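From: lab user (bench 3)
To: helpdesk
Subject: output format question, protein + heme C

Hello, I'm new to running complex predictions and I'm not sure whether the block I got back is the full result or only part of it. Here's what I submitted:
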Amino acid sequence: MNKLQVIVATLAAVGLAGAALAEDLSQEKVEQAIKYRKNVMTTMGGEVGTAIGRLRDGFDYGPSLEAVAAGLVANTQDIPALFPEGTDFGDTDATAEVWSDAQGFADKAQQAKDAAAAFSEAVSSGDKAAIMGAFKDLGDACKGCHEAYRKN
Ligand code: HEC
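Helpdesk reply: Thanks, we reran it on our side. This is the complete output you should expect:
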C-alpha cells in the first residue's frame, strides 16, 4: 500500500466504524422510544383502572378522581408524538398502519383527547351519570384505536 492507499483505507475503516456506531445508537433510540410510549400507555391503563375502582365503590376519596382525569387529559394531549417515524420495528405491538395511515391514527388520537377532556369536565361537574357516560366514551376511544392500530 502506498501512503494514499493507507489513508483511504483508514478513512474507510473509520467511516464504517462511525456508521456502525450511528446504527447502534439509533437502534437504541428506537428501543427507548418504544419503551417510553408503552410506559405512557401503561400509565393511562393504570389511570383508567383507578377511575373504574373509584366509580364503582362510590366512596368519597377527595380530589383523587380529578387528579386521575387530569393525568388522562395530559397523556392524551399528543399521542401521535409518541410514535416517531422509524419506531415501527422491534418490541412493539403497533401495526404498520400507525405510520402508513397517519391521518386515521391522528383521528383516533383526537377522539381520545376529546373524550379525556369531556371526562375531566364531567368529573369537575360532579354529575355521576355524566361521569359514567364520559368514562365509557373514553374507554371506547382507547379501544377504538387499539382495535385498528395495535396487534391484539
Ligand atoms: C391513537 C391510538 C391509541 C389511543 C387513543 C390509545 N392507545 Fe393505547 N396503544 C396504542 C398502540 C398503537 C399501542 C401499542 C404500542 C407499542 O407496542 O408500541 C398501545 C398500547 C397500549 C397498552 C399496552 C402497553 C404495553 O406495555 O405494551 C396499554 C395498557 C394501553 N395502550 C392503554 C391505553 C388506554 C387506557 C388508552 C385510553 C385512555 C389508550 N391506550 C389509548 C394506541 C392507542
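A quick orientation on your result: Residues 34, 37-38, 41-42, 44-45, 48, 72, 79, 92-94, 98, 105, 108-109, 112, 138, 141-142, 145-146, 149-150 surround heme C (CB under 6 Å). Let us know if anything else is unclear.
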